[in-house]
């Protein structure tokens, strides 16, 4: 283990990726501050975290008899933060103890960071347009200083519905389409069973949400959507999603008192670095990767 980490710390490709990632984070902050966003510190432990739609091993700590989860995503805290502020973002470290099947995707680590943002009273379209502007800004700024592999994308990115890509490509649509495309694109309108209960169901069984997908086989970049914020609708979605209401009792107490309507997204920082630098894996986008199934420092 130590030899592998030692050579990673002296690897030039990794060093360059980490330097570029630092520039990416700075440009994200600059861009969002200019657009009136406030950065909030990440929440690392809480009784309240994202249930996610796919299975991960649970990561809990007990402290004076209270049980906390390690954050899988800050989705609920983003909604709550909008009671205080109108536009927020956070560089949010997420712990997702993924099963071994995800080891070889090139896109998963057990510990990663997402730029998670949320806007009060916004639509999905507002968020997609903001992210497009942000990626154009980041890539044009980076290209002034670094000879990065990814080009500056053109706005607006293509939007394709889930129903359409599924009809044309079947189960493996994301990989196939990502390999085919030359520019980042959006997949919108996911079916309800494929996503968490907090994305807004705008017609029966269809959500007003989106995934951003990188071209050239780099795959999923970001997910987001408009949110459910009304108490009765949230209760209904939790039940229909097959979850137990008791597991979300704290969140529901807040929802009962009133949550603002909002839309937002989370963009994986290591994935963006991988795309910008054309790396084989997100493992090379960070100095201390927590590779699925491996022991590391
Ligand atoms: N951050 C994502 C969002 O805003 C949620 C997630 O990471 N699961 O929708």
Q: How is this fold's topology laid out?
A:
Elements: H1 2-9, H2 12-34, E1 38-39, E2 45-46, E3 60-63, E4 66-70, H3 75-81, E5 87-95, E6 111-120, H4 124-145, E7 158-161, H5 162-169, H6 173-180, E8 185-188, E9 201-203, E10 206-207, E11 209-214, E12 219-226, H7 231-240, H8 249-257, E13 262-268, H9 269-277
Parallel strand pairs: 1-5, 7-8
Antiparallel strand pairs: 2-4, 3-4, 5-6, 6-13, 8-11, 9-10, 11-12, 12-13
This protein binds asparagine (ASN).
What does this structure look like?
This protein has 297 residues and is α+β, with helices and mostly antiparallel strands. The protein has a domain at 2-151 and 232-285: Bira Bifunctional Protein, Domain 2 (BirA Bifunctional Protein, domain 2, 2-Layer Sandwich), CATH 3.30.930. Helices cover 35% and strands 22% of the residues. The protein is built from 9 helices and 13 strands. It has helices at 2-9, 12-34, 75-81, 124-145, 162-169, 173-180, 231-240, 249-257, 269-277, and strands at 38-39, 45-46, 60-63, 66-70, 87-95, 111-120, 158-161, 185-188, 201-203, 206-207, 209-214, 219-226, 262-268. The strands form 3 sheets. An 8-stranded mixed β-sheet has the order 1-5-6-13-12-11-8-7, sandwiched between helices. Helix 2 (12-34) packs across helix 4 and helix 2 (12-34) packs across helix 9. The longest helix is centred in the N-terminal third of the chain and has 23 residues, at 12-34. The N and C termini lie close together (9 Å). The model has no long low-confidence stretch (mean pLDDT 97). It binds asparagine. Asparagine binds next to strand 6, strand 12 and strand 13.
């Amino acid at each position: 283990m130590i030899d592998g980490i030692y050579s990673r710390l002296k690897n030039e490709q990794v060093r360059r990726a980490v330097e570029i990632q630092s520039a990416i984070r700075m440009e994200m902050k600059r861009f969002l501050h200019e657009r009136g966003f406030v950065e909030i510190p990440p929440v690392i432990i809480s009784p309240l975290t994202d249930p996610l739609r796919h299975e991960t091993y649970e990561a809990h700590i007990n402290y004076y008899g209270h049980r906390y989860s390690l954050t899988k995503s800050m989705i609920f805290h983003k909604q709550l933060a909008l009671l205080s502020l109108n536009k927020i973002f956070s560089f949010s470290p997420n712990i997702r103890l993924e099963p071994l099947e995800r080891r070889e995707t090139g896109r998963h680590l057990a510990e990663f960071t997402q730029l998670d943002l949320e806007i009060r009273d916004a639509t999905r379209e507002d968020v997609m347009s903001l992210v497009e502007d942000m990626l154009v800004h980041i890539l044009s700024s980076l290209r002034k200083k670094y000879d990065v592999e990814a080009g500056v994308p053109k706005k607006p990115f293509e939007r394709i519905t889930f129903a359409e890509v599924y009809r044309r490509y079947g189960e493996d649509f994301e990989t196939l389409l990502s390999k085919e495309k030359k520019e980042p694109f959006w997949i919108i309108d996911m079916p309800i069973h494929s996503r968490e209960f907090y994305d807004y169901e705008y017609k029966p069984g269809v959500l007003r949400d989106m995934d951003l997908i990188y071209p050239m086989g780099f795959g999923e970049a970001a997910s987001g959507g408009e949110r459910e914020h009304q108490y009765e609708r949230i209760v209904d979605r939790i039940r229909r999603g097959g979850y137990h209401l008791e597991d979300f009792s704290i969140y529901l107490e807040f929802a009962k008192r009133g949550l603002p309507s909002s839309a937002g997204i989370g963009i994986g920082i290591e994935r963006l670095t991988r795309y910008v630098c054309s790396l084989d894996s997100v493992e090379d986008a960070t100095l201390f990767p927590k590779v699925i199934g491996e022991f590391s420092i």
